[in-house]
Amino acid sequence: MPPVAAGYLLNYFFEIGPLVGGETITQGEIRHWQGNVGVTLRPWECRVLRNLSREYLAESRRAQQFNAKAPWKPEAHKPLVSDTQNAIRALANR
After folding, report:
1. Residue 9 backbone phi and psi in degrees, to 5
2. Number of domains the chain contains
């Protein structure tokens, strides 16, 4: 997965449950979760959780299609050997 700025919201999102009964989470479910765990979310955080749930549901439906593509592009990784060689060359040229 790509890096996320507000990673704590992802933890909350999966703790609440991305979907409930195959549908998006509701404001009521978020409110009950807050009361149960003693967390108070700001309004924008609640909106983000609802939007994440909508996107999660939409992507889970898209993913069921034949030849569905990943929702992100994996980064190209360089071989570790060439990275090490480049680092050694950089140190040698100091």
Report:
1. -65, -35
2. 1
Query: Is there a domain that residue 2 lies in?
Result: no
Q: Which range marks the domain in which residue 44 is found?
A: 7-92
Task: Give kind and range of the element (H or E) at residue 23.
Answer: strand 23-24
Note whether residue 35 is domain-resident.
yes
Task: Judge whether 1 lies within some domain.
Answer: no
Give 57: exposed, middle or buried? Use CB within 10 Å, 0-12, 13-18, 19+.
middle
To the nearest whole number, what is the mean pLDDT of the chain? 82
Whole-model pTM: value is: 0.67
